[in-house]
Write a structure and sequence with these properties.
Length: 207
């Protein structure tokens, strides 16, 4: 259990919270000047993040707010806001041992300005071998590939980039100001994706 924490700094290789076991709870976190990964989860089950507010280094291209990797099952996030996301606000992938991650339940999840890449990524390593059971409700995925002055930093950056995965539900989310496409489903293996009640606007800024 971790509660009422202020975290700051680090390099692009820093993992501030490594979630690698069962039944953890992280609450009331404030993070500033982050260049690395704020939350990294793999081979862990039934973990909970509540009320997290963080800022990357302005215009950085390396920070990841939430990295959900192999064997991370049932990760619940209630209230996360991250500015200057760097590389990604959220990535779900299967690059380690432990099997595909499953069970991402995020509510009030807002990430902004990933200068170095797409804002939310469902990686091609997820394939279609297992259900990922993703539910994101009430969110914001903004300014993928753009700097604070709105100039383009990464022309190929997408708001929500779905390269793999099954059973992904996104509801009441704003996807705005991406350098490239707002939402992209880019793999024939992707199945059962539902996006509802969402606002997708002012993307393709590089065109």
């Amino acid at each position: 259990v971790a509660d009422n924490l202020l975290v700051e700094g680090g390099t692009s290789a820093t993992k501030i919270f490594g979630i690698h076991g069962p039944n953890g709870r992280i609450s009331n976190v404030v993070g500033t000047n982050i260049s690395g990964t704020l939350y990294e989860c793999d081979n862990a089950v039934n973990n909970y993040i509540n009320n997290s507010q963080s800022f990357g280094v302005r215009n950085n291209t390396t920070m990841i707010a939430v990295d959900m990797n192999s064997g991370c099952n049932n990760l619940q996030v209630l209230g996360l806001q991250n500015s200057y996301s760097g590389l990604h606000g959220f990535i779900m992938r299967n690059t380690l041992t432990g099997g595909t991650p499953t069970g991402a339940f995020f509510t009030n999840f807002a990430t902004d300005q990933s200068s170095g890449g797409s804002q939310w990524v469902f990686d091609s390593t997820l394939g279609d071998s297992a259900d990922n059971f993703v539910q994101i409700v009430n969110g914001f995925a903004g300014s993928a590939g753009r700097n604070t002055d709105t100039t383009i930093a990464t022309a190929t950056a997408i708001g929500i980039d779905i390269e793999g995965g099954r059973n992904i539900s996104i509801d009441n989310v704003n996807v705005i100001d991406a350098a490239a496409t707002g939402v992209l489903i880019n793999n024939s293996q992707v199945t059962n994706v539902k996006i509802t009640n969402s606002f997708i606007n002012n993307n393709n800024a590089n065109n």
